[in-house]
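Researcher: Checking consistency across runs. Here is Arachidonate 5-lipoxygenase-activating protein again:
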Amino acid sequence: AFFANKLEHESKHCNGKGFQRQGSSYFDRVYTANQNCGHAYPTFLAVLWCAGLLCSQAPAAFAGLMYLFVRQKYFVGYLGERTQSTPGYLFGKRIILFLFLMSVAGILNYYLIFFFGSDFEIHIKTITSAISPLLLIP
């Protein structure tokens, strides 16, 4: 909602009419940042749900909250110089990778249970709970 509101405000500020693509370079940066964030959210939601359902809910929820803060940092950084958005982008990629690896670990555990009868769920939850605070390291 913040991104869309910022885009609408900048659109009205640039030309006084509704949403149009033409405008200042600042409007172009706001528009591009909004589009980048909008394109990243479906992937984020998919891996967040998979990690939460297949592996462990608490580390997935923590990573999800961190991702929302990181996207905010990316958006605000994108409005400044382009190099200011790079840390938020890289941090977001790391969180998505963590969620993806949690999903893969949950799927592998399911197949280990199905084929071999071995359950590593407790070990996987312990490892993901221990690793999730490491996401705070920039």
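Researcher: Does this match what you'd expect to see?
Model: One thing to look at in this run: The domain at 1-108 is CATH 1.20.120.550 (Four Helix Bundle (Hemerythrin (Met), subunit A)).
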